[in-house]
Amino acid sequence: MERLSRRCASCLGPESEVAEPWTVLIELLDVLCRRLHMDVAWLGQFEGDLLVLQVVSGDLDRFGIAPGMSIRRSSSLYGKILAGELPAVIPDVRADPRAAQVASATEFDMGAYAATPVVDGEGRSYGMLGCLNQQPCPSLGESDAGFLRLLAGFLSQFVIDLRQQWEMRSGVWRHIRSLLDEGGPQVYFQPVVELATGRVVGVEGLSRFPTAIQGPKDLFAAAATVGLGPELEMAAIRNALRVLPDLPLDVTLTVNASPATATGGLVDLVVGTGTPAKVAVEITEHDYIGDDRGLLLVADILRGHGTHIAVDDVGSCYSGLEQLLHLRPEVIKMDYYITHGIDVDPARRAVAAGLTRIAQEIGGRVVAEGIETVAELEAVIATGIPFGQGFLLGAPTPSITDACRGDRLPGHLGAGRRGRVA
């Protein structure tokens, strides 16, 4: 098995939406690991002289293996097995002179190895099913080789669908990779306004993909399914942070990050700007985070550097309230669903008032998202919410200067409130 080189990454971790047949295959590979007492099991598809690993299971870090990595047939153990030069099961790679001479065997210091071909339901060659172990496995024998072949035969009913899914995922990966290679998303900035004065107190960096058919939300979701979600988010954050030197002193920049991105290097990026206190990090994912100690630790570290923590879409679901209670954010973004129609719905006004009270108790402040009409703005102000964001107050713009400019309250409402404040 030669040094693995990264190709189409297909993330099958907890963030991915893994559908059939991927789930079944992972379970079968788990069974194979246990049956043969091996560290790692894998299924790969042939692409010319390469075997591209599609599904892997086990202690991946031990060998540096991940979905989407490729192995060259000409200098690998699986190639020797495929050519009939080695048996399907090698209990002690180091003690077998035929196996020990293969460069990858010594490079990865493998102790035991097993592999067998896989064909699809129409009898066409598909790839290889295999497993490996760091230590020799003297107990491996012909019965284990038989079990491996039995499982490979069983997989034939899945691999046609798997090939189709792999091609689809590979296409998504190439598309996201191309966007990253082009510099990542463009960033537009939408103002956050102090409703008592109309003054811009912050801007939120929003990703835009002018050349893409899909919208930002769909593209970030697609990136997550192929393991590129954090990389795409980090590219967007880097592009947003470039405007920090151009921000007015009293304006904060908000960037969006999922928990995986926040715990994957965001601290160094924000602190490395030299002005972390001018940044707010908005946690954008609503999965359960109560026991995510890594995320809570990152939030505390960022706070220690003066960075604010925000949570979005609060009020739209129970998980948003859970985030609020665990993270105790400085900024609470009230969801558009609550803002829209708040002027005609007493229940929405009650939720808004409740969030304002919660914010007061935890030392935070509420921003009402999605304000689109004067009536909604007046109702938001009446509930005691101090800050707002939405198309009525300012549409996203690529110009940071335009995003920070001027009194944002509309017409007579702005003039009237300025008079009362004065």
TrEMBL record:
SMART domains: EAL, GAF. InterPro entries: Cyclic-di-GMP_PDE-like, EAL_dom, EAL_sf, GAF, GAF-like_dom_sf. It comes from the Bacteria. Residues 169-410 form the EAL domain. GO terms for molecular function: cyclic-guanylate-specific phosphodiesterase activity. PANTHER family: CYCLIC DI-GMP PHOSPHODIESTERASE PDEF (PTHR33121), SIGNALING PROTEIN (PTHR33121:SF76). This is Diguanylate phosphodiesterase with GAF sensor(S). It comes from Pseudofrankia inefficax (strain DSM 45817 / CECT 9037 / DDB 130130 / EuI1c). The lineage of its organism: Bacteria, Bacillati, Actinomycetota, Actinomycetes, Frankiales.
